[in-house]
Amino acid sequence: MTELAPPTRSRVLAALRAQRIETASWAFGNSGTRFKVFAQEGVPRDPYEKIADAATVHRFTGVAPTVALHIPWDKLDDYAALAAYAKERGIGLGAINTNVFQDDDYRLGSVTNPDPRIRAKALAHMFECVDIMDATGSRDLKLWFADGTNYPGQDSIRARQDRLADALAATYERLGPAQRMLLEYKLFEPAFYTTDVPDWGTAYAHCLALGDRAQVVIDTGHHAPGTNIEFIVAVLIRAGKLGAFDFNSRFYADDDLMVGAADPFQLFRIMCEIVSADVLKPEAGIAFMLDQCHNIEPKIQAVIRSVMNVQEATAKALLVDTAALAAAQRDGDVLEANEVLMDAYHTDVRPLLRDLRGEMGLDPDPIAAYKRSGYYETVKAERVGGEAAGWGA
Ligand code: PSV
Ligand code: MN
Ligand code: MN
């Protein structure tokens, strides 16, 4: 990398130092496809051990100070005790994810189910998750609904939207003043004909009707191939409705592979929208979370790598020469504008990130440091005969 001018260098380093990436508890447990879950040694046996793994990621990266929970995968009697344990380990508890998709009752949907008894059960779970947020001090309630239909005529599309709106409104009412509701969309799966929240437009329309504390989650794996995700990012930022990302990468559908693995250029383009709108800083309120499954690769190491991938894309976005870009755009110089962006993308930012880690008192190479630490060998020896609930359960 050519030498950066000192003001640029300190601006970029300050932004990277302030960056926050939230890990997910379920990334540390066993997961797989519908064909096979490959069990790994040393996986956490309970939410406490997942927290310990998340704290390990933070210890080596310095920018992942919170971990999201999924209920009931992380069900406990005492969430305040879990929050205290996390604090002891140097991290906090992040978003609370609801789970209204893994129960036989939800065959025809949860909050959009035609049966009012099932809808009430799903709503009660959402309220329970807000109670958990009260105990953990979490700011965000994250909602993803597997609801939809498989066959034309199976149910009324409009009636299901009405039921969804009712459940969201009741949950929104239950939130405290410092709490937010984040609504995630997904094109398809498990429903194959209609999905009740299939796209950002539907999520946006519901959030708009609810109020300021309802915002949209962009899961990068939840779109049709070829979708321009950075366009969605730009539109939602402009509307003040981008609440969070679930980062992961995909080659085909909702692959949940490591972010930045399939398409690092897409991740860069997304981060360019974030940086250019000045919403990278935590105070801007956008949560950058990982929602991934590490089916065949070592999990903690994969989460560390994912954090580093996000940092690399962010560093490149921060290096875009904004003055040169603005001038090229003003002049209508299409190729020059594109080249300014590509120059930043092609910069090798790894030395800069190594320097950042050094300045933060971290090992410049988090993966090597993690491997040297012997953490995995220790937990492998300790954690025998168990497997935490999660996708693999
Ligand atoms: C659904 O595919 C999803 O992306 C939602 O965020 C779930 O809560 C999550 O996966 C669990 O991995
Ligand atoms: Mn997700
Ligand atoms: Mn998903």
TrEMBL record:
Gene3D superfamilies: Divalent-metal-dependent TIM barrel enzymes. SUPFAM superfamilies: Xylose isomerase-like (SSF51658). The keyword Metal-binding applies. Coiled coil: none annotated. Keywords: Cytoplasm, Isomerase, Manganese, Metal-binding, Rhamnose metabolism. One of its GO terms (molecular function) is isomerase activity. The keyword Membrane does not apply. InterPro entries: L-rhamnose_isomerase (IPR050337), Rhamnose_iso-rel (IPR013457), Rhamnose_isomerase (IPR009308), Xyl_isomerase-like_sf (IPR036237). PANTHER family: L-RHAMNOSE ISOMERASE. NCBIfam families: RhaI_grampos. This is L-rhamnose isomerase. It comes from Asanoa siamensis.
